[in-house]
């Protein structure tokens, strides 16, 4: 920042390109959003969560970083379990920030740190308590959850926060997924919307063709999509129930009066870290005018 207190204009000259997880400034300058909020919601509601993408150049940067983490920790799961995630504690390691952060949250300078981990002899996590739920619920104990901003966010607009809700208990479970929709859920995943303005409901999947040009560099076409046919009214309700606990959790954390969200749980075929259950949440902080109207 110049001596007169005015912020520097963000550009390739003022923002150095680093390695590892990017800063907010790097995301704005080097990896600008490829998708609008409307397009993101359309992709989530399309039935194929594989449409949600990370910037290709950021993906390359991630791949290099991930190789180093695997060498140091043995696997990305180990890195997350024993380094990145802090069960029941605020996230102080992220280089990004959330409007939900407390003003006193103290952040570390980075999230790498010196090697302190023997991949051949990983430390033991505390055992799950005897009263731990069999699957993720809206009131899952905080010590079984770690909520962090995605260090490697998908290509979302600057005003959209991409948060990950990690949990030590499964999200997909036979107790909440009826056998008649089990195959569908395991192919398509789960998703939902909260805090949706009355005058702007989730986009219909039928409008997807209008958004496909934004996915041109990934060579996405309708014929390449993996989508289950629409089920009966009863089947659609069973799928909704399978995601009901996640939906209630999202509403409890992102107050619907102040936030609009699109959340999803990737199916196994799309999970980059299959060893750990987690929910993706795209969250938009509503404007003061929207909050005053209180229509959702």
TrEMBL record:
A Pfam family name for this chain? DUF3605
GO terms under cellular component: cytoplasm
**Which example biological process does GO assign this protein?**
N-acetylglucosamine metabolic process
Task: Write down the superkingdom of origin.
Answer: Eukaryota
InterPro entries named among the record's database cross-references = DUF3605 (IPR022036)
What name does UniProt use for this protein? Uncharacterized protein
From which organism does this entry originate?
A: Heliocybe sulcata
